[in-house]
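Thread: "does anyone have the structure for this chain?"

Original post by V.I.:
We have the sequence but no experimental structure in hand. Need at least a predicted one for the grant figures.
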Amino acid sequence: MSETAPRIVITGGQVVSGENVFEADILVEGEKIAGVFTPGTAGTADRTVDAQGCYVFPGIVDAHTHIMLDTGIYRTVDNWEIGTRAAAFGGVTTVIDFANQIKGQPFAAALKARQQEAVDAVIDYAFHMVVLEPEYETDALRASLTRLMGLGVTSIKLFTTYRPNYYVDDSTILRIFRAMPPGMIAMVHCENDSIVTDATERLVAQGKTDWAYHAQSRPADAEAEAVSRVMYLASLAQARVYVVHCSTAMAVSEVNRVRSRDGHWDQVFCETCPQYILLHDMVYSEEHPEHFILQPPLRSYHHTESLKHYVANGHIDVLSTDSCDYSLEQKLAHRDFTKTPGGLPGVETLLPLMYTTFHEKVPLPRLIQMLSENPARLFGLYPRKGAILPGSDADLVIYDPQPRSVIHHENLHYLAGYSPYEGMQVHGKVRTVLSRGEVVVDGDSFLGKAGRGQFVRGSASLAPRRP
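Reply from O.Q.:
Generated one for you, tokens below.
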């Protein structure tokens, strides 16, 4: 047998695809899945991995991470080796991060700079392009976006807030929507900047800048209004749009109202994150409010329960993390929400938290759609990623559903020094992780190495299958 293409058989497990759960053996040859076989019929192998009593999932695709993030004001303490190693321990085999266009910079230059930063990744990665200063003329912009797709980036990111650094006004958003080539999708951070600015300025004027006031500075109505407005602009331009990190019931309701009304189930999409499902705004009056500074902020119990309902009923397309590895030291530097870096660590805990929350409420195939297949489809990586099919990359997670454990930040692999989910009990444990056919996590041991991760080029995106 060739040393360059070792054969591995994963046997005895319950395979979970985006369609069903079934008993099968999976044959891996080199970096690819060679076949999915009736148990006992996969043939001989160089190595057999016993998955008895476990589920075999396609590798998780976290579509929203911020590894080695530099905003120009704050910088996370991780790097690409540390960030992707933590991801691997959580069963995440592909992260989709962001290349930030500097104003006046061509997209290709922004992408190249980010690819150079990611050279030490231990798992595979793709990028969305943050668009800050597009060409003014629509045809020139369309040509630039078409070239960007040719470089393997099929998604862009726009912000309706963070003036003046990231903010893009409505006329520019509409022009970008109209310039997007077929197969491209726009991610949008939806908060009304004027509402946020007004709320923040009123709190500052009253001297209310303690962390306890953070949620009041970015009201739920700011998200709801911006989602409604972006949906309207997307309808005018017939653009494909993906609303990131929905924190409120109103945001998801608006997305679903538009696609139900107009039949745009293949045009508009949304994600939410574990923090908006599992945490609520009472934490801002508790012992460690600094742990929960993020944008959008945590919401009331009503919203967390509504988001769980939307996940369970198939109205949310993707579960991702928006993970940012800011250190506790950075969080504690100023007891002032206007000066505290926003973002929570979470890529390593995505799968166990979402399995724990939903495995009795959501069929496992649908859960895997939200965690793996749908992000791969939406961002042009399917079926190379997000699938257990012959020819797909051998990104596989063996998940043992039996163990019970409690999350403690000391047992995690990022640098923040805390976990927003500290003390939560989780059901199950990631036992073994394969990335392109290589075992990178085996129990508590990490077997990968810096630099083995690859940039994955996206192609024209596909709509998720409806539940």
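V.I.: this helps a lot. The mean pLDDT is 96.
O.Q.: and The longest strand covers residues 396-406.
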